[in-house]
Amino acid sequence: MRNHRITTFSDLLYPNGTLMQKGYSTKAVMRYNRKQIKAPPWRIKEWDFYQVLNDDFCLQLTIGHTSYAGELSVMLIDLNEKKTYAVREMLALPFNRLRMPASAEHGDLAVRRKNIEMSFEVYKGGRRLRCRTRSRRAGQPVDIDLELCQPDLESLVIATPFDENPRYFYYNHKINCMPASGTVNMGGRTIGFEPETAFGLLDWGRGAWPFSHEWVWGNGSAWIGGKRFGFNIGFGFGNTEAATENMLFYDGNAHKLNEVYVDLAAGGYMSPKTIASDDGRFEMDFEPLYDRYTETKMLFVDNRCHQIFGRLNGKAVLDDGTVIEVKDMLAFVEHAVNHW
């Protein structure tokens, strides 16, 4: 059944390490337990990625690992000047030492190194993101303290298998539309984020992945007509026969989409694009503004990503047929090719 919605509470994995249920939900109804994974330990990947975006700046905070390599990173992107300020600390052979939470809905995460400390606190109705560098050797001085308000109960949760191995899987939770407030001191400047103009995003991922793959992922949040509107689109994340990860969010409610497609590389990454769904419920013209290209090489890791920020114009159709007119909405679409 296409776009199977999971409503039954269960463990994520059977005792043999395969997915107990495949599909999507709007709340975390399946329990992730790292000890139940039967794939080789070097195939396990876990990350918490937060992004805070307004019309001028994008802040990204990451704590994650691919078992044999890990990363703490903070990146501030100036969308007007098209400059990026970044501090990154790579971790060799972290495996399970980071103690990543088993749920995106509860459990704090804090990592302290000699030159940098980062913490993600989860509480009822919100989240707090903090990062500070303690040495000039860490690069750009950083002092970040942000709060994300999480008013909505519905979000995107998806459990996806991989064809390469029945014990490979991707369990992902994305939370949109979190108004953001706070201060970022980085790159010799102080920047304030206000909830009227800034939204936070969480990309929480756990799983056992094949070594090589590629994906396309797009996401955005905005105020439209005084309501919180957001979207998530993507493909390439394993076998999506049970469900896609395409979804709309409006005024606290999730609305499921089927297939959505864009060829981000066609004509060059900075050329205008059309994003289209197979059911006509997500039709957008995408005008790129900035290509944040990154490469990560460490040990066996060789990852490359074009994250394209741009403006969207078009329409989105909710489950009840309501049409949301989208005008000059700032969002991103990325194309990643990974060997990790």
From TrEMBL:
Q: Which domain of life is it from?
A: Bacteria
Q: Which InterPro entries does UniProt cross-reference here?
A: DUF2804 (IPR021243)
Protein name as it appears in the record: DUF2804 domain-containing protein
